[in-house]
Amino acid sequence: MKLSYHGHSIVKIETGGKTILIDPFINGNETTDLDADSVKADVILLTHGHNDHVGDTVEIAKRNDALVVAPFELATYLGWQGVNTHPMHIGGAHEFDFGKVKLTQAFHGSAYTEEESQRIVYTGMPAGILFFAEGKTVYHAGDTGLFSDMKLLGEMYNIDAAFLPIGDNFTMGPEDAAVAAKWIGAEKVIPVHYNTFPVIEQNPDSFAESLSGGSGVVMKPGDEIEL
Ligand code: NI
Ligand code: MN
Question: What angle do CA 57, 29, 180 make, to 5 degrees?
């Protein structure tokens, strides 16, 4: 399984000949190396409905005929825009032909902001994503504050790679994310959701160095790791 990071919360997983994109916020994201008009995806996994996560999902899904897997309300909203969806919800897992997906809780908001009409469309609860394939387990926490059930994730799963937000202000900052990393006990912990906007500026290297056992891995947009 190949994992790559593409700025903000975008993670790409390549497994079994399929390309899976998590939270493809490309246009408006100055940190990404991806191009929304050419990026390939068989599947798009979404953690929640905020614009900096839904991003270019509709365009990418239509161009690639990709399946969009998202919390129920968000999947319904995107389905109305003409994309193929598979709705799920927190605590539920489903075995797909590209791997198994389970949604976890996340403490955050979830709504899509339609700027032009100044409307906010509520899109249910936000989630984190557990992804299982090739005997490996990947956790993408989505946007969340620290919560003590992260200990349970550490107890229940042998997580090979965990993507945790460190930007602060909207999500965990580096100190809380370091506590999360300890509880989750992942082999590799990759910081995400920082330096996209001034309010979430952080030093990912000092975060990674603060983690015990050398588990912190800073990935620059475009960097890949093999699990
Ligand atoms: Ni958010
Ligand atoms: Mn966000």
Answer: 85
